[in-house]
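Recall the central idea of this unit: under ordinary conditions, the amino acid sequence of a chain determines the structure it adopts. In this exercise we apply that idea directly, starting from the sequence alone.
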Amino acid sequence: MNPEPSADRRRQALQDHVRQLAECARAAGADAAVPTCPGWTVTSLVEHVGQTLHWVSEIVERRITDPAGLPAGVAELPADPVTWPA
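Accordingly, the structure predicted from this sequence is:
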């Protein structure tokens, strides 16, 4: 059995984590404080984690193995929490 998950399994795991983050963020509220990150709101946390997950998903999707090919841009979080991924 191949111990390394397929790109599809990795993609699905990322989507599942994004969905869980969005559900928790909506439940807490966009302006709620993040106790483990002083000065951050849920919006700040979602933006940070979302940008990281977007960066990782680009690496997985494009199967980047050379650091020179790493994505340089960051994803923008929609301003309205209602439009966050579900």
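Residues 51 and 74 are 6 Å apart (CA to CA).
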